[in-house]
Hints:
Blueprint lengths: L3 E3 L9 E2 L13 E3 L5 H4 L5 E5 L6 E6 L10 E2 L2 E2 L6 H4 L3 E10 L2 E11 L5 E2 L4 E2 L9 H29 L3 E9 L5 E10 L1 H5 L3 H9 L3 H9 L3 H19 L1
Antiparallel strand pairs: 1-9, 2-10, 2-11, 3-5, 4-5, 6-7, 8-9, 12-13
Amino acid sequence: MSKHELLDNVTHRRLRVHTIYGPNRGYDFNIARAFPSELPNLQREYPLFFVKNLESGHFEPTALLGFAEHENLYLTDSGWDAEHIPLTVQRQPFLIGFQDRLLEGIAQQVPVTHIDVEHPSVSVSEGIPIFLPQGGESPYLDRIHSILAAIYAGHEAARSLSQVLVGLELIESITINVEFENGTKHSLEGLYTVNDEKFRGLRANGLEALHSRGHLQDVYMMLASLLNVKRLVARKNRRLSDLRSAT
């Protein structure tokens, strides 16, 4: 269960966050939302796909972390086994909320920081303090605010990427069928990618549409990342081998 609260230095003055990634600490999920600004780093280590947001209709970049719903193959007993960690993972247990405020006499919704007080990483005895003893923000919270600001900006960039790809009819659904060394098979559906053949066949005006909105590199990054599916399968095979050895 989650319980989101508007963060403040009175209600949450004693809270700390355990920042070591590990099993059963709230990071047991197999996909993580990603944003265009981080694709150059993420494509080196993760398979990247799109997932359709059923509310907005937009296609959102996503890093694939495992093959089953709660399987994160990048989690180990010693931490997160990758150099670059998606922003949506780094920001936990914090998230962006919105609050009505009067700005120059006009009611507007502004982004504010919320915290999931039920997240397994939140504690009053372990981890990094969120606030300083005098009530000021800790360096850790300053870093979280920077991450949330990048995510907030990333939403618009991701929306723009989705719009131009849909307009050029480059998005296609894909099913990932894999077989592991122990003979088990798994099929992943609900994922989308860029149609490589259509992309390579784009005329100058299509390429210019991508380039002018800053998304040409994003497409290359998404396509290059597909090589990491094999690496993810290798991670799964190592995990299965370790389980056999343990028994």
